[in-house]
Predict the structure.
Amino acid sequence: MTKFMLISRLINKTNASLSALKSRPNDAYNIPLNSPKGPCSLVRIMPVTSPTHPACGQSGLFAARDLKPGTFILQYIGEIHAPSPDGSLTPDPHANSDYDLSLDREQGIGIDAQRKGNEARFINDYRGIAEKPNAEFKEVWDEEQKERGMGVWVLGEGKSGKGKGVKKGEEILVSYGRGFWGARKSGDLD
């Protein structure tokens, strides 16, 4: 392979990742335009002190006020990453991160808040804490940045009316998904 062909492949793969990041998916939710930039006034990071809590001794994200079903809480901010465009087999620095969310599986684009991020990185999984999650991750579109992302929303009421909102002082909990826990049980992410 010539040097020109290799560079062309690198550029095409990088351009495909950038294009995917800058293309609005049909099913993405809009980040509300009035969402403040900077620290989120809807939440507080607090230490988890209950000895029965799986994250005891760490921190969690708690509602600073009552949040109604379907409320946008905040965007999940972190380092946007994609596979190495050269296809090299160098170790993936995000492979063992507990803060890495998939944004586009096909392109391999993720958001990792392990080294940098916002309050959303303190959201815990509901397992061992509550019967079910009270919030969820949804893909979002940032109209200002013209970029895809991930947001955290209070579970909606839904057809069954099960989304009750989040009360002030209550921990905001999501489902990390079976893939997250499956990888840890199989020892893939030691």
About this structure: The CA atoms of residues 60 and 122 lie 5 Å apart. The two ends are 37 Å apart (CA to CA).
